[in-house]
């Protein structure tokens, strides 16, 4: 027999599928354990070896928990709505649902592109997923429930008194009985107060407008990241360096009417909940910073009347340092602040508008990160200090964000570094006052004093002599007395924009009557995405759904009908935006609990049984996006009586990234001369693309001046010999690094030149300055594994050549799960060799060689060391050291010539979470008819690890001469007697008697003198 991984793995993958080996039950008597992976977006590029890392880890853990007797739910699905599919549809004209289906199931798309398919790739690695529970967020039978959850949010408000979401009917009952004066809700700012009589007298439309100010999902004009190139709004995490992550298009800030989610209602619960979950401190800290709790005060500054501002206007400011109010020397508004247009004077209008236009091109993230650039414009307006009544100039500056606090700051340069830099930069301009120092015994001539410790307030009227806490309490009291402020807790967390101007997303279950949103009754869900001819926005700027011809709601027939029937009497327009990608991923773990329930997103019984995810594994890049939104939706569903727990994920592990080893070729850009006597000319079209090998490039780049010139001269001759009609001035040589597909490079870093020429049409005639041996050597660098860097290694290739078990073991062996680690295909062969060595314990060329011999003491010690180590490692997620232990164990058993069933049968179980296919095969060869997958994990017997004897070093005058194996229970006297009678001792002493015999039982024997 030989180890044939392809044959073995296909056999057992079919067995698992046919027998539904990993199907979880919702009514098991076993204890439950729910292991979840962050499900993938199914792109056409498929999986590379970096993707399965977390999946393999979760699979090892899932299989281990089954061995421990748990009913394990380990599901998989696809986050299949997304911008990449829509962009591909725009480029190729293919339907996103078609390309998404091919990306998952495999096949050939309409462009003729062969797609491996995520499902086939995942199956090939041998994951123990319960595929009967698969979900795809883009399937109508899934997103009907996402639409239902949206309706629940729309029909809810957040009651601060009960600290939970409640049905909107409880709010209207309060309005009808007593008005809104005493309602303690999370809602819009500046809501007008009304009585019960006024509420009951309001027209229905007016009531609906008021309720929108309280609903947990609502329509509002919001500052958004608008990407004209993609025709859609982007979330902050979809923007990198001011451009879209997808495509690199410019992004600007603009106001649009959008659906928003009132996640801010849950800010404190999201913050406190972090104390109850087993997540890494770095992820928790990211969420704490994103939520950004601040304790301080709201302060109102009255804007002084000017020629264009006669109406009373107030600028409200949230500050964490109200104690410094007497140090205010100017105010700064965000460029997008709604008051800017109102208070700007005619003289400053042009400068302000130009600044706003410039700022709109920078994302919020970019503005927050840029602490070096100082920019701003004076509005021409002044505000009045609440206490001194002094005029304070009002500026705009992009370091202030409209979405944080009130979008305005009271600038205290003596106590804040950014205010300090701003005041000094614009010193003496447009009413910018001198910096006031309100701290006693503090020098602010060179920098601001931002500490709250050891503060004594000065030059501050009634606050003089007080410390930070005393002054804060006092100033809040005084602000409340004059009606210009109050104490307040603020959060950085903003309500989440929930609209996207895209086609490929969940349709909103919303139609509009007189411009007001109405929910479609849940019994008519799902509202399915309509067909459209093109996926771009319409010519008049509407979202892609504006291209749909059948996209209106008939309120009588209760169905979607043609747009030509819209009469705004019985047939109304449907919402044209779609939900963002995070809608479907904010509750998917619950759907896995009851994936085929047509009536509910999951039954109460299933939710009660599985409760929440016990282990969640995924990337840290989702720290403040997916994870925060998921916790928000889970808490909301808990409030509404659906989710059984407050938090969705008990334990979270972020797997590190597998890095790729990129390869580079070096392209030469020289100056071409048609004739040396005629001087330089432009690059000749006859000149082939030229590449220089790495070491020769390094000599030019790194060599000393003389060596570099010599090298240049040699290369110049080589080039001119090759191209006699073209002359190059290598004195002006420039070289650019170009990524090359790693499949064209061998383990010696040698480029396959012919393959490279065939790779791109424009490289067909390329010329190469090679090494002296005629080989072209590429450069190497460890980078993120990415298709764009051509450094991707596919798991399919590894599985085909070495088998999935080798891939699984190797990925776990690379290093600690949570650390980034470089991929090196060269290491695969060592793991493959280990598996072949493992097999040789069980069978040889003639078949099974396992015996029923009694195991030796050493056999048992090797086995139980491994049982102990592997169990501890899996519980601690230290998978890499388990693989090391497997190798040690197999080496030891091989040296012991062990073929005992009593050892090899439990060994197959111990290794099965990591290498399940070969474990199943060995288990079967041993005569077992059931799957190894649910066999109990071998029990550790500590007695086999207890040492009964000791290999003592025997030394003479401190020098070790030989060793002797003795039982550990011997006394000093017994040890001395045995050693003195040993022939080797007698020979060493040569008739002499030692002056002293030093014996430490279990450690040393030393004869002195």
From TrEMBL:
Catalysed reactions, as listed in the record: tRNA(Leu) + L-leucine + ATP = L-leucyl-tRNA(Leu) + AMP + diphosphate
Chain positions of motif 'KMSKS' region: 784-788
Give the Methionyl/Valyl/Leucyl/Isoleucyl-tRNA synthetase anticodon-binding domain ranges: 860-972
Q: Name one GO molecular function term.
A: ligase activity
Q: Which key words are in the record?
A: Aminoacyl-tRNA synthetase, ATP-binding, Cytoplasm, Ligase, Nucleotide-binding, Protein biosynthesis
Give its E.C. classification number. Answer: 6.1.1.4
Ranges for domain Leucyl-tRNA synthetase editing come to 288-480
* Name under which the protein is recorded: Leucine--tRNA ligase
Write down the species: Flavobacterium taihuense
């Amino acid at each position: 027999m030989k180890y044939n991984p392809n044959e073995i793995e296909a056999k057992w993958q079919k067995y698992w599928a046919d027998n539904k080996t990993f199907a979880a039950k919702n009514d098991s008597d076993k204890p439950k354990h729910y292991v979840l992976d962050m499900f993938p977006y199914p792109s056409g590029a498929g999986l590379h070896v970096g993707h399965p890392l977390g999946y393999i880890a979760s699979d090892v853990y899932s299989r281990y928990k089954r061995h421990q007797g748990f009913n394990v739910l380990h599901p998989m699905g696809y986050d299949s709505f997304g911008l990449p599919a829509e962009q591909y549809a725009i480029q190729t004209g293919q339907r996103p649902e078609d390309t998404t289906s091919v990306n998952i199931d495999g096949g050939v798309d309409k462009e003729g592109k062969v797609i491996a398919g995520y499902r086939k790739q995942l199956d090939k690695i041998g994951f123990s997923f319960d595929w009967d529970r698969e979900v795809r967020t883009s399937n109508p039978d899934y997103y009907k429930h996402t639409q239902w959850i949206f309706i629940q949010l729309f029909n809810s408000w957040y009651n601060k008194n009960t600290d939970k979401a409640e049905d909107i009917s409880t709010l209207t009952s309060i309005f009808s009985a007593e008005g809104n004066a005493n309602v303690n809700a999370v809602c819009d700012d500046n809501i007008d107060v009304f009585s019960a009589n006024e509420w009951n007298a309001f027209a229905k439309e007016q009531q609906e407008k008021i309720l929108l100010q309280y609903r947990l999902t609502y329509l509002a004009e919001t500052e958004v990241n608008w990407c004209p190139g993609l025709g859609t709004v982007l979330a902050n995490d979809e923007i990198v360096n001011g451009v879209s992550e997808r495509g690199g298009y410019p992004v600007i800030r603009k106001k649009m009417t959008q659906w928003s989610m009132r996640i801010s209602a849950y800010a404190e619960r999201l913050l406190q909940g972090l104390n109850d979950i087993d997540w890494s401190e770095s992820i928790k800290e990211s969420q704490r910073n994103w939520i950004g709790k601040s304790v301080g005060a709201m302060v109102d500054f009255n804007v002084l009347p000017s020629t264009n501002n006669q109406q009373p206007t107030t600028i409200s400011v949230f500050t964490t340092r109200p104690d410094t109010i007497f140090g205010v020397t100017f105010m700064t508004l965000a460029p997008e602040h709604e008051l800017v247009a109102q208070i700007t004077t005619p003289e400053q209008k042009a400068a302000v508008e130009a600044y706003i236009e410039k700022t709109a091109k920078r994302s919020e993230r970019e503005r927050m990160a840029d602490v070096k650039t100082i920019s701003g414009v004076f509005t021409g307006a002044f505000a009045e200090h609440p206490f001194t009544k002094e005029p304070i100039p009002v500026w705009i500056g992009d370091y202030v964000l409209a979405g944080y606090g009130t979008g305005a700051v009271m600038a205290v340069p003596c106590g804040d570094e950014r205010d300090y830099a701003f005041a000094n930069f614009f010193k003496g301009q447009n009413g910018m006052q001198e910096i006031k120092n309100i701290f006693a015994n503090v020098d602010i001539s060179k920098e601001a004093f931002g500490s709250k410790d050891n503060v004594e307030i000065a030059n501050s009227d009634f606050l003089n002599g007080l410390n930070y806490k005393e002054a804060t309490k006092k100033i809040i009291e005084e602000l409340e007395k004059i009606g210009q402020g109050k104490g307040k807790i603020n959060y950085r967390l903003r309500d989440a924009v929930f609209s996207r101007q895209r086609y490929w997303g969940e349709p909103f279950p919303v139609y509009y009557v007189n411009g007001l949103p109405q929910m479609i009754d849940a019994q008519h869900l799902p509202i399915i995405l309509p067909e459209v001819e093109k996926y771009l926005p319409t010519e008049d700027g509407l979202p892609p759904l504006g291209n749909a011809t059948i996209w209106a709601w008939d309120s009588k027939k209760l169905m979607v009908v043609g747009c030509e029937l819209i009469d705004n009497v019985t047939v109304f327009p449907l919402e044209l935006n779609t939900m963002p990608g995070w809608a479907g991923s904010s509750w998917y773990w619950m759907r896995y609990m009851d994936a085929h329930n047509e009536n509910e997103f999951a039954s109460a019984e299933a939710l009660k049984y599985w409760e929440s995810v016990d282990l969640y594994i995924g990337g840290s890049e989702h720290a403040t996006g997916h994870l925060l939104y998921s916790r928000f939706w889970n808490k909301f569903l808990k409030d509404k009586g659906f989710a059984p727990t407050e938090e969705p994920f008990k334990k979270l592990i972020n797997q590190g990234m597998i890095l790729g080893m990129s390869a580079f070729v070096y392209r030469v850009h020289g100056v071409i001369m048609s004739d040396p006597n005629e001087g330089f000319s432009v690059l000749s079209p006859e000149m082939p693309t030229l590449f220089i090998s790495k070491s020769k490039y390094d000599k030019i780049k790194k060599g000393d001046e003389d060596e570099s010139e010599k090298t240049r001269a040699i290369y110049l001759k080589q080039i001119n010999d090759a191209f006699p009609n073209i002359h190059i001035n290598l004195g002006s040589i420039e070289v650019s690094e170009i990524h090359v597909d790693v499949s064209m490079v061998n383990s010696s870093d040698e480029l396959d030149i012919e393959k490279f020429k065939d790779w791109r049409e424009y490289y067909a005639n390329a010329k190469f300055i090679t090494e002296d041996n005629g080989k072209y050597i590429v450069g190497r660098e460890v980078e993120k594994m990415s298709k764009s860097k051509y450094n991707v290694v596919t798991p399919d290739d590894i599985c085909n050549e070495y088998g999935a078990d080798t891939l699984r073991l190797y990925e776990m062996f690379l290093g600690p799960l949570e650390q980034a680690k470089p991929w090196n295909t060269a290491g695969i062969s060592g793991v493959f060799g280990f598996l072949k060595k493992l097999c040789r314990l069980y069978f040889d060329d003639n078949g099974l060689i396992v015996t029923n011999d009694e195991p030796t003491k050493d056999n048992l010690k090797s086995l139980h060391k491994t049982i102990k180590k592997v169990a501890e490692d899996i519980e601690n997620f230290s998978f890499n050291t388990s693989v090391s232990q497997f190798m040690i164990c197999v080496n030891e058993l091989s040296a012991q010539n062990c073929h005992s069933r009593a050892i090899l049968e439990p060994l197959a179980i111990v290794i099965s979470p990591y290498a399940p296919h070969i474990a199943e095969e060995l288990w079967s060869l041993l005569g077992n008819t059931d799957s190894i997958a649910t066999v109990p994990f071998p029990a550790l017997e500590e007695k086999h690890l207890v040492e009964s004897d000791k290999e003592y070093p025997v030394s003479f005058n401190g020098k070790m001469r030989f060793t002797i194996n003795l039982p550990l229970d011997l006394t000093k006297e017994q040890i001395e007697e045995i050693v003195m009678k040993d022939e080797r001792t007698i020979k060493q002493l040569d008739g002499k008697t030692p002056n002293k015999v030093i014996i430490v039982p279990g450690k040393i024997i030393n004869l002195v003198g």
